[in-house]
């Protein structure tokens, strides 16, 4: 790890790389995600997705954020900590918002429609995060990996519960299997997004609804 710089020039704030729905501002058990930390995470996600976690140096991260590499240690203890916060935060966001939408739904069909809509929104807004989680999972520190696993299991269980409420003939395991299959479809956006986002949204929604028997 590069030692924390004792003194640094004032940070030059760089614009975020395009408008996106927030996914970390609520904070995680790893620390409060301030707007500046969120900005750094957004930029890092794009770089990690493009070149891989190990293909991006701290100096390159700093340059992309408009500061020196060591200045990043004002916000994150290490590059590993940055990856951990990134992936824990998105998992918490997916689960929290998914539960919120289910809680306001009128029934299991509406709950599934809300979950599909939420996941499509996320998958279209944050393709880079999907790539990073898929490719750089093994680079996560152990504690963060276990936290992400727990959050993802809870998210799968939320989907599986609504799938089974909609079709009571399904076993719990069959419901979870369907949830995983749907995630494979919805998380394909980094590779399948050959249409403009509004059209991709409709394609993903129609295919997910068909798979769930909501058509």
Description:
- The protein contains nine helices and no strands.
- The longest helix is centred in the middle third of the chain and has 25 residues.
- It starts with 34 loop residues before the first helix and ends with a helix.
- By secondary structure, the chain is mainly α.
- Helices cover 64% and strands 0% of the residues.
Mean pLDDT across residues? 85
Q: Uncertain segments of ≥5 residues (pLDDT<50)?
A: 1-23, 25-32
* Percent in strands: under 5%
Characterize the overall form: elongated
Separate helix tally: 9
Q: Can you count the beta strands? A: 0
Roughly how much helix do the residues carry, as a percent range?
55-70%
Structural class: mainly alpha
Oligomer: single chain
Distance between the terminal alpha carbons, to the nearest Å?
Answer: 53 Å
Kindly summarize this structure in a few lines.
The chain has 215 residues and is an all-alpha fold.
Write the layout of secondary structure elements.
Blueprint: H1 35-51, H2 58-65, H3 79-103, H4 108-125, H5 127-136, H6 142-166, H7 172-186, H8 189-192, H9 197-212
Helix pairs in contact: 1-5, 3-4, 3-6, 4-6, 4-9, 6-7, 7-9
Question: Key features?
Answer:
about 220 residues; single chain; mainly alpha
């Amino acid at each position: 790890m590069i030692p924390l710089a004792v003194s640094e020039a004032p940070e030059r704030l760089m614009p975020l790389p395009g408008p996106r729905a927030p996914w970390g501002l609520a904070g995680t058990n790893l620390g409060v995600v301030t707007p500046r930390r969120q900005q750094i995470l957004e930029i890092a996600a794009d770089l990690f997705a493009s070149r891989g976690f190990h293909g991006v140096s701290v100096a390159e991260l700093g340059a992309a954020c408009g500061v020196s590499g060591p200045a990043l240690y004002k916000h994150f203890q290490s590059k590993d900590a940055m990856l951990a916060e990134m992936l824990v935060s998105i998992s918490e966001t997916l689960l929290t918002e998914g539960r919120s939408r289910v809680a306001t739904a009128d029934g299991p069909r509406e709950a599934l429609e809300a979950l599909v809509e939420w996941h499509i929104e996320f998958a279209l807004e944050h393709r880079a995060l999907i790539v990073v989680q898929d490719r750089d999972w093994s680079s996560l520190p152990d504690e963060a990996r276990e936290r992400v696993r727990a959050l993802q299991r809870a998210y799968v269980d939320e989907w599986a519960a609504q799938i089974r409420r909609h079709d009571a003939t399904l076993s719990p395991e069959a419901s979870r299997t369907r949830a995983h299959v749907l995630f494979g479809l919805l998380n394909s956006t980094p590779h399948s997004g050959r249409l403009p986002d509004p059209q991709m949204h409709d394609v993903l929604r129609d295919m997910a609804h068909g798979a769930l028997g909501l058509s």
